[in-house]
Amino acid sequence: MRYTAVLMPAITTLDNLWIGRPCTIAAALLESDGHRAIVDPGPGSTLETLRQQLRERHLAVSDLDALLLTHIHLDHAGASGALVRENPQLAVYVHKNGAPHMADPSKLLASALRLWPNELQRLFGEMLPVPAENLRILDGGETLTLGSSKLEVVYTPGHASHHVSYFDHDEGAAFVGDTTGVRIEGHSYVMPATPPPDIDLEIWENSFTAILERKPARLFLTHFGFSGNPAEHVLLFRERLHQWAEIAANSMRSASDESAAMASFMARKWNTTSSAQGCICLFWGWRVICASAPRWPHNGVCNAVFW
User: CA nearest 95: which of 147, 154, 145?
Assistant: First the structure.
């Protein structure tokens, strides 16, 4: 009798079904020679979905070796502490600028609570601290080993000052978090991801260069899934990011207050955005106003979307 070996995929997209919606927040399951890691496990509110996704693959949290965090925003890293509580052997890799907030998320949660005083639990669930002994501090430039796989860590700020990306050169995959924006797998439109007040458009350019220099065959985006042709993707994202920043700055200069600036921005963007994209994309774009040319306090609608 002939037996055929079934090779498991080295990278699996796990849909966290955030607030019940598919293709919003993705985690990446990496497997190599019996070792397993998750890139960006997602928020605490989707923890049970993540467990279910693992069970469907005959895995449990106890089978995981590591969490690889691109950055510490709640939609990417919020479930980390709870996962470590279930599996105290988990190593949590995070940039040095984000590590203190994983050990003590009180400031992160206090900031989020100002934005969603009545919705924080529903949107993001609980964020538990990660014990210091589980944290593995990154600067960028490291090479991590997962089974027989090697992952290069690259510092990619711009979206956040503590952002890193992970490169699996054997698989041709770059796990870029939010560095290259939002693009739903199978669709062409790329949206900026620009949460105030941490973004830096100038330094972001260096991150684009760092990604493209490594010539990955595909990008893995937390929002959402794989994107082929990284050079084209980054080109489109860079153009739209700077276009929206210019429109946002002009809107702020000409408006009397934040509400007027938002209305102006959305009206201008509506002329360049199809109706199918507009309702979501314009709200995303408004965040560029707060981050690129802050003139009013970062509150209210400026912080209305989290990634």
Answer: 154
